[in-house]
Each structure stands twice: as C-alpha cells, then as structure tokens.
Amino acid sequence: MISQPKENCQHKNEPSLLLSPDENRLLFTLLGKSCRSLATAVVQVFLSEPPQHCQWLKHCCGVACFVKDSTRRSYFIRVYDMDKKKGAWQQELYLEFAYKAPQPYFHTFEADNCQAGLNFADQKEAHLFQKAVNDKIQSRLQNTIEKKQTEKSYEVKSTQLKITPMAPKNYNDLNMYPVKPKKKKKKNGSKKISKAEIGMPTNFTHIKYFGFDPNTGFHLCHNVDGHLKEFFSMAGISEKQLQDNSTYTYICNFIAEHGVVDAVQANSQPKRFSKLI
C-alpha cells in the first residue's frame, strides 16, 4: 500500500468547528490556490449605519476566514456565502489595524468606510479567530520596529564612516594649505612713457666737449680752448690719468656740474679755478 504524503502544516487551512469536512473543503476551494485561512468561524457581519454610525445594521451571514493572500502579499478578513459559494464581504488589514473584543462572542474593528462587527456563533471559534488576527498584528508591528531600528543603525554607521577634513589647530598648521600668491598690480606711476609724449628739444646750444678713445684715453675735441688744457695741468691731471675710464667719468661729471668750460674761457688765470678740483 502506497502512503499518501502528509500535508505541510505551514500551508494547512484552519477549519471551522461548526462545519462538516465537506463544507470546509468547499470553503477552502473558494479561497484560491495562493490563499490560506489562518482561522475560520461562522459569523454574522454587522456594519455601522451612516452618516452618524451610531447603530449596527446586519450586513450578511456566512463563514469568516482570516486569509493570508500570497499573491497580494497581504492579510484579509473575508466572509463567504456558502449558499451562493462566493465572497460576501472583506476587509484588508492596514498598518494601524486594531482588533477589539468588547464581548467574547462579538468583535469589532474599523473598516474602510465604517465600523464593522463580527457576531460569532461559537465562542471558542471567536477566541481562535481573535488570537490569529492579533498575533499577526503584533508580528507585523514587531517587524516594522525592527526594520526602523535596522535603518537607523545603518544611518548611524554611514554617518560615522564619513570622513571630514580637520581644521588646522594653530597658525603654523596653515602652512599645510598653500595659498597661491596674488599678482601685484602695477602702480599708476610706473606707466611707461611713449615716444609720442616726448616733446621736441628747445634752446639748443652747442658746447665744447671732451672725447674718450679706448686706445688713447681722454682728449679734447673740436677746437677746445687751450686754457682748458692748462687747467688740467694746474689741477695735476696727467694724460695717464685721463686714459683711465673711472677718472674720465669723474672729470666729465665735475666739468658738467661746475661749468668749468665757461669759467676757463672767461678767465685766463688758471689759478682762480684750482679750488674747483
């Protein structure tokens, strides 16, 4: 005899205590392949009367199933009409869903558009149904808390791993951050003068001058008055000294600054100019 494989308990539907096995099997076929009933009970469904919602109105009778819908990845309270073999009413569990039991046989919760109440035919079924719903509410709440804690912990670790540059502790540390030198702006007074800004010469007069040859040294040029040569002699300036470049430069500057050429021409006595040297 070949034994039949046992049904996995995790995928087993919880039957109603008031229904026969055939009725339970029929009910489970109405759920669909991707759905499983975690609790099953015979109930009456009451909804609050709009707009004040202060009175209960009987909506339908049937079998309530607390369904895990794997396709929609959610949980539902679904009520099935066994005579019509179809669903009569449902409510999805939302994030802040609260399931209350003001009476052991009468449970209430807030539906999408009104208050809903389940009046159970059997008090034991009512207890099993309440436990299944509240266990799932607590499980989802715990998962939400753990997820938030994990996200918070990840954010803290990510913040700690961020590297921020340290500010220098003192002035000497500023040398670690080189600064490019600024380009100096040219002063207004350093502007170059163009040729157009230079005027023509005025009151030009030709004067006698000295020349210097690298081979022969210092010499008088172009009809230099003979008294100037006598002046060099009286001043003790030899021809050898005149051949020296530095001595030549000094004599030129001295003659130009003191007007020696004009003085020599105006006075024939060299003794009067010996004090100029």
TrEMBL record:
Superkingdom, natural source: Eukaryota
UniProt-listed Pfam families: PBD, WH1
Domain WH1: 31-140
Cell compartments where the protein resides: Cytoplasm, Cytoskeleton
Positions with biased composition (Basic residues): 180-193
Positions of region (Disordered): 172-195
Record keywords, A-Z: Cytoplasm, Cytoskeleton, Phosphoprotein
Protein name per the record: Neural Wiskott-Aldrich syndrome protein-like isoform X5
Origin species: Limulus polyphemus
